Amino acid sequence: MKKNILIIPGDGIGQEVTTWGKKVLEKISEKYGHDFAFDEAIMGHVAIEATGNPLPDETLEKARKSDAILFGAIGHAKYDNDPSAKVRPEQGLLKIRKELGLYANLRPILLFDELLNASSLKPEILKGTDILFFRELTGDVYFGEKHRSNDRNFASDLMNYNRYEIERITIKAFEAAQRRSKRLCSVDKANVLETSRLWREVVQEIAQQYPDVETEHMFIDNAAMQLVKNPKKFDVVLTANLFGDILTDEASQIAGSMGMLASASIGDGTGFFEPIHGSAHDIAGQNKANPLASILSVALMLEISFGLKEEAAFVTKAVADTLKAGFRTLDIADNTTSPELILGTKEMGAKVLEAFAEKKNVVYS
Ligand SMILES: NC(=O)c1ccc[n+]([C@@H]2O[C@H](COP(=O)([O-])OP(=O)(O)OC[C@H]3O[C@@H](n4cnc5c(N)ncnc54)[C@H](O)[C@@H]3O)[C@@H](O)[C@H]2O)c1
User: Fold this and answer.
1) Is 221 marked as binding a ligand?
2) Where is it predominantly found (predicted)?
3) Three-class SS of residue 1?
């Protein structure tokens, strides 16, 4: 299979982890006889420094021409401490999502048994958890009108949704529920918010076309509590942009670390694949970042954008085998991990590639 893949490393640890996502793609292409061609582009703080623009036109042009994008992260401490900065790295990310029409963010909460102890939650509560979040990406308070009064003492962010924005992600989520355990939970705040009342109305209408899927509606406050009380209760979770942002970070603790979770942003064209974590200035440039979320993002790309299920399963299995062999980065190590098994970014990435080599003749379903 011939594919053009754009790599956008971004800032901070984005650069370190994406290197390993790309190496995995190269290995897969070699092993399965695919023809993956790579190009690279800048976004975020590095792009502001180089061009003054967090999403240069050249990057957007390359993104539009590619079949899939592997992204690292954006962000720099300088902007975190200066909320008044007009040009900001995250504008690049919001703009590329809009321009590519990426309306659904998929975040699988994949729990490796070997990491049951890395979570702050009890292993017996976590074991067997398998959730797929669908977070809406193009509406909500992120894009509504923003206002600050002249005396600077009043601020507002408009939360808004169009029916079509809710419909298209709801259909994708129901389709996924049909392929999984046929359970879907839609999370909103319909007791308070008008946008949530529209959300619930649309989900209820579309649910009628999927009678084989058991549909539940839950308020966000209850969902946030149930997620840590009984995460196995959930399978497909469908929610709006802001609620999804918060819930999925909460859910990252189920998997043990932000460094383990991958995500896919999809629309009707090019797919965008990235770890859920940010640029992590606190550990950037120190070879401490966990590259597994970037590698698992590659597995999502192979399956969702290219339909390469066997290759995707191969990547996930290589990660599982690396963990089974006891190797850990600092974020997923616990007090039972021997110091010689705690690896840096480069060493962990290399271990996953070694696991590939050992599995040459194994067939994965
Ligand atoms: N999608 C994105 O690009 C994205 C997402 C979130 C935050 N950000 C940006 O990233 C910057 C830092 O934000 P933050 O600190 O809130 O979130 P973060 O995800 O960068 O880091 C949160 C914590 O998790 C740790 N961590 C994150 N990824 C890790 C990994 N792969 N391996 C090991 N540890 C890891 C960090 O060291 C930090 O302690 C900010 O500028 C923010 O705007 C970008």
Assistant:
1) yes
2) cytoplasm
3) coil
Q: Is 164 a catalytic residue?
A: no
- Domain-terminating residue out of 208, 229, 255: 255
Please tell me the total count of domains within the chain: 2
Residue 301 shares a structural domain with residue 221: no
CA distances from 44 to 70, 87, 146, 225, 325 (A): 14, 10, 22, 34, 36
Active site residue 189: yes
Half-sphere exposure of 3 (CA within 13 A, CB side): 23
- Which residue, 197, 231, 255, sits at the end of a domain? 255
Domain region containing 137: 120-255
Q: pLDDT tens-digit profile of 87-139?
A: 999 999 989 998 999 999 999 998 888 888 878 889 999 998 999 999 999 89
Ligand 1 contact via 292 beta carbon (within 6 Å): no
Q: Are 4 and 35 in contact (CB under 8 A)?
A: no
**218/270 same-domain check:** no
Task: Assess whether 268 carries a catalytic annotation.
Answer: no
**56 - beta bridge partners?**
none
Question: What is the Å distance from ligand 1's center to 279 Cα?
Answer: 5
Q: Are residues 73 and 154 in the same domain?
A: no
* 103 and 163 inside one domain: no
- Distance from the alpha carbon of residue 283 to the mean position of ligand 1, in angstroms: 9
Residues 251 and 265 in one domain: no
Closest Cα to atom 12, ligand 1: which residue? 280
Q: What is the pTM of this model?
A: 0.89
183 is in an annotated binding site: no
Nearest-CA neighbor of 75 among 32, 114, 46, 104?
46
User: 211-249, pLDDT tens digit by residue?
Assistant: 999 999 999 999 999 999 999 999 999 999 999 999 998
Q: What is the percent of the chain where pLDDT is above 70?
A: 98
Task: Examine residue 25 and state whether it is found in any structural domain, yes or no.
Answer: yes
Convert the pLDDT of each residue in 331-350 to its tens digit.
Answer: 999 888 999 999 999 999 99
